[in-house]
Amino acid sequence: MTKYGVVVGSIRKNSYSKGVADAIVAGLPEGSDVTYLDIASLPLYNQDYDADSPAVYTKFRDEVKAQDAFIFVTPEHNRSIPAALKNALDVASRPWGQNVWAGKPALVASQSISGISGVLAHHVLRQSLVFLDMPTLQQPELYIGNTNKLSDENGHITNEGTKEFLAGAGKTFSEFAKKFI
Questions:
Q1: Is residue 104 predicted with pLDDT exceeding 90?
Q2: Binning pLDDT at 50, 70 and 90, where does residue 124 land?
Q3: Which residues contact 12 (CB under 8 A, 6 or more apart)?
Q4: What are the extents of the domains in the chain?
Q5: Is pLDDT above 90 for 18?
Q6: How many CB atoms lie within 10 A of CB 155?
Q7: Pick the CATH number of 3-178 from 3.40.50.360, 3.40.50.300, 1.10.340.30, 3.30.420.280
Q8: Which of 20, 32, 85, 147 is 20 to 30 A from 9, alpha carbon to alpha carbon?
Q9: Cα angle at 19 between 83 and 144, to 5 degrees?
Q10: What is the DSSP string of 62-115?
């Protein structure tokens, strides 16, 4: 059974990114082991902690290590990824030479309430994942715009076409991930 880690870049309650992630997860094979990783409680990465990491860093790194593949869903903040997501990438890739993301296949999705769909955040995240040595699904590209019109007040995707598209991407990702696991 494949273990999928899900990292949602938005830490707000009822986030649209979480709704997109849920719709992607719906397309994973039955019986998949899915874990949503908490990035909200991670203290900011500080290299001074490398010699003696806080317990929360160690716990997070162990959670990342335990996963076979990752689904990342992010909103766009100021033409980049949210600070909490960048921090999570840094925490689990440090100390230098101990990157626990390495070799794990990844899917990237971005979303926005605007029509540009978080495209810049999407590419910033992809660039980081290349450096972290994570093979990343190239197609389909998942830029989801106008999420406020595709979702309910709790952030769940309600548009049937979008749900079907995202579930299809989850299925495609599961097939891609098998090549690396």
A1: yes
A2: very high
A3: none
A4: 3-178
A5: yes
A6: 21
A7: 3.40.50.360
A8: 32
A9: 75
A10: HHHHH-SEEEEEE--BTTB--HHHHHHHHHHH-STT--SSTT--EEEEEE-SST
The amino acid that residue 127 corresponds to is Q
Pairwise CA distance, residues 49 & 91, whole Å = 10
The pTM assigned to this predicted structure is 0.97
And the tokens for 6?
């899900």
Sheet holding 106-111, edge to edge: 33-36, 3-8, 69-74, 106-111, 142-144
Paired tokens of 140: 């389909």
Report pLDDT for 110: 98
Q: Which residue has the tokens 């980081």?
A: 128
| C-alpha atoms less than 13 angstroms from C-alpha of 165 in its C-beta half-sphere | 15
Average pLDDT over residues 123-149: 97
CB burial of residue 108 (10 Å; 0-12, 13-18, 19+) = buried
Residue 116 has pLDDT above 90, yes or no: no
